[in-house]
């Protein structure tokens, strides 16, 4: 009865990991050979892991990543031009900590989205809040926010995100308001957050895709400032999967 009351109180205090570990200890006779400090240390460790796993799951749910990707599963075949040393450096997430950008370019189907999600997943594992958007969908949501008057709230949510992922930038043309919104998003993140952009268009052509030269200068300058650049090469990985 006393054990049951202890478990109930632990759960009531939201110490669920400790409660589970305590119940397990009651079923393991060899635990009696351990000192109080040793057993208590095991309980605290389980609670810590439970809390960390729950927090990670919350960050991953919030991030809404398009793919379940991990940096450990990346394909480093030489033909892709993806360097392990670069990914190892980015995996440390110092670029997120110091509010830098990552730009990933390459032909369609070469794994840009997977790489972006893998880096965002690693950021979540390191304790950073991330948020993924498919490029055209992001600007549709911004346009909808303009329509219902919620754009300040929506832009504030993006500004608070430690890592913003915009996938397939440049795939759809924007109107002048769309480009101004994009500039505001980037400007809000200057020195406050990291941004990861993927695009099938080479970086040197981005300026040409924005009709207003002044906006183009401002947007491209903010994107490439302090940016790590990755160019993925090779054939479409989707075609390779279809053949297999």
Observed structural traits:
Rossmann fold, 244 residues, 11% strand, alpha/beta, 2 domains, 5-stranded parallel β-sheet, 12 helices, elongated
How are the secondary structure elements laid out?
Layout: H1 2-12, H2 16-26, H3 36-63, H4 84-91, H5 94-97, E1 101-105, H6 112-125, E2 130-134, H7 135-148, H8 151-160, E3 163-167, H9 176-189, E4 194-199, H10 206-209, H11 213-224, E5 227-231, H12 237-243
Parallel strand pairs: 1-4, 1-5, 2-3, 3-4
Protein model, in words:
The protein has 244 residues and is an alpha/beta fold. The chain folds into two domains: 62 residues, no CATH class; 179 residues, P-loop containing nucleotide triphosphate hydrolases (Rossmann fold, 3-Layer(aba) Sandwich). Helices cover 56% and strands 11% of the residues. The protein has twelve helices and five strands. Helix 9 links the parallel strand 3 and strand 4. The longest helix has 28 residues. The model has no long low-confidence stretch (mean pLDDT 88).
